[in-house]
Amino acid sequence: MRVLKPFDPWKSELCTCGYKLSFNPYTGCAHCCDYCYATYIPKFWEVREKKDLFRKLERDLDELKGDEVISMSNSSDPYPPIEKEKEITRKCLKLFKEYGAKVLVITKSDLVLRDLDLLSEINAVVSMSITGCDSLEKFAPSTDKRIIAFRKISEVLPVVLRFDPIVPFLNENRLKIIEVCQPSHVVTSTLKLRRDSFNRIAKTLPWLAERLRRLYFKEGEKFGGYWYMRKDLRLGILRKVEEFCESLGITCGFCRESFEFKAKSCDGKHLLDEKDRKKF
Ligand code: SF4
Known about the structure:
Structural class: alpha/beta
Radius of gyration: 18 Å
Number of helices: 9
Distance between the termini: 38 Å
Largest sheet: 8 strands, mixed
CATH architecture: Alpha-Beta Horseshoe
Bound molecules: iron/sulfur cluster
CATH class: Alpha Beta
């Protein structure tokens, strides 16, 4: 079985990513975010190693043409706590270096700082998710820890801020995070709900439950198994973030929304092209 697979989020017509490869060094995630989109995977909160991972990764890397972007990871975090001891993600980064691969590292963990030495030697961009919703991200490093990590990584690499998801009534006005981080690019997106993620959020924040129920299940629309808010509401929220980014001279893209934006890519992969990188 392949470990580098074409990225295909729910076969969604709302995705604007273009072609990239998805790679998850682990199965499952220990951060346990209430809003997680990947909990359709059985036993998702148990982080598991993959059998024969390095041999399979080398085999798949051998077949690359060289211009593909590898996105690590989309449906787990490459830096769960056991990575401290296992160093599986670090070993994968060493292989990426050997093969000259282009890598977009998506994480919520400050453990990524451990690998800055390697990351600065390969064509890599780090994308750090910071939503300011610590209560919904039970076992992920705190917002403060992530902001400190973000600023340290920014000294050596382009860093994308994933202000994602925006949970209505909760973090839509926490734009200060963007100002504090001063990212190379912002990718943002409104919350999408499944019944299981709604139930988890409702349990953690009961005051929000009725408002979300109305916005999503009564007035919203469904795409590929996920509930969205009404289009005009989503667009209003996203344009506000975009305008704020523009006022700071920062580009902004939207994830799985199908709205137009001015940035060269939604996820920040344009920063992997040398000409679009800041001088580091
Ligand atoms: S970090 Fe991402 S994959 Fe992990 S639980 Fe949170 S949303 Fe899900």
